[in-house]
Amino acid sequence: MCILYMAEPSSAAEWRQAFLERAPELQFREWPEVGDAREVQYLIAWKPMPQLMEQFPNLKVLYSAGAGVDQFDLSDLPDHVSLVRLVDGAMAEIMAEYVIFAVLALHRDILDYQISQRDRVWAPLPIIPAYERRVGVMGLGNLGQLALERLQPLGFQISAWNRSPKEVPGSRCFVGVDQLHAFLGQCDILINLLPLTPETTGILNASTFAALPEGAGIVNVGRGAHVVEKDLLTALDTGRVGGAVLDVLDQEPPQPEHPFWRHPRVLLTPHIASNVQVKGAVDVVVRNLDRACKGLPLMNTVDRSKGY
Ligand code: NDP
Ligand code: OXD
Fold first, then answer.
1. Ligand 2 site: residues with CB under 6 angstroms?
2. Torsions phi, psi for 266 (to 5 deg)
């Protein structure tokens, strides 16, 4: 059995070591040292590869080296090849940590204080207690659920919006397009943790911003293409949106002249909210091998009809 690693080259040694410890019987190869391509049954990739099946005719499972799969053209992948996301609890914990940081930064007016500091102005703002702040999460998946769970003990009024109904202990889950505006209307801070699909592309747009309370904060940790950037810029410039913490952009890195670099109401980070934790990811691969041997369905497979 052979697995080919085609993701971040600087992490390859860590993956090799983790496979060696967990599944020494598995042959680990590292792109571009493919060897006999017919032996490659499992592939770990972050970027799409043209003519995948021509190159690896015996491919069984494509593992996305991350939680998102929007980078792949799902129609290119034959039905017998499974697409699996390498997500685990540690990745969700790291994301929750970032979400807490971003929500607290908006909640405690850190963007204003950065401006004040730059201008040498000592200007305290009124403090709003957490129990008066309404925080909503879009997307109650692996990452959204834990983020919400970790936010709850901080005292915020929390809620969620999801495609299908889900339990949110002590709060409400708004469901589907029909309830989107009702959800938005009660979010002082909105967190996007949706996957990027045709339905969610551009979901953070002028009409979304108009439905939020005036001056609401936005945290985007999903994908850059969830945001219509020119609409966000207008919303920030007019004060419709009070501030944005953006970890993802449509183009990464953005051009030097991109307005978000220097926008006083934007806190920008370079797609670091979370990432794959190698041990957990290797565990998914190995447990899936075991499940395949037992004829059980694989874990973390992507539903191609939904696109996530
Ligand atoms: P999951 O697939 O576990 O969850 C996705 C959630 O979104 C599900 O609850 C799903 O609803 C909901 N959803 C999907 N489409 C819609 C829709 N049209 N309307 C309403 N709800 C919808 O994904 P993860 O939580 O693991 O990851 C989410 C995303 O986070 C990834 O796709 C990736 O883009 C991003 N990410 C960003 C990182 C970063 O560093 N910035 C790191 C890792 C991930 P349902 O329950 O009904 O299926
Ligand atoms: C992911 C990401 O999807 O890092 O894993 O964004």
1. 66-68, 275-276
2. -125, 130
